[in-house]
Amino acid sequence: MTEGKRLGVEVSKLANSIKRRVSKVTVEVESEFGLTAMQNWCLGLIYRRRGHDIYQRDIEQAFNIRRSTATGILQLLEKNGFLYRVAVECDARLKKIVLTDKALAVCAKMRDILDECEQSFIRGLSEEELAVFYSVMEKIEDNTKE
What we know:
There is one protein chain. With 146 residues, this protein is mostly helical. The chain has one domain (7-144): Arc Repressor Mutant, subunit A (Orthogonal Bundle), CATH 1.10.10. Helix content is 68%, strand content 10%. The protein is built from six helices and two strands. The protein has helices at residues 7-33, 37-48, 56-63, 67-79, 101-121, 127-144, and strands spanning 83-88, 91-99. It starts with 6 loop residues before the first helix and ends with a helix.
């Protein structure tokens, strides 16, 4: 172990720094479009899964939130023109979530901002260093499952 350093503390500090930086750059887009962070995360999830059907239960599972919470988020996003829900042929109770052009524009803007953040995080690191970093992180994550 490196003298005076604790893995959990260092990882937590890094995670907090990354969250702070990401929040700082995303808050502008969120306020421009009147979104909360959670609404933005939901749009991002739906955006990343475009091309595949996504339903409310997927949102609930992805963010570990209750049905009532997901319902409220999706209703507001629908009311504000970011998405709409379409009944599925095989089960009229099941509604597929579809993003509007307005949401696609927000998501594209967010993707560009987050790509810039990512590039700033890895600035000065070689491909080899990144490969080692990801490999070590994966091993540590595996070790937490024991």
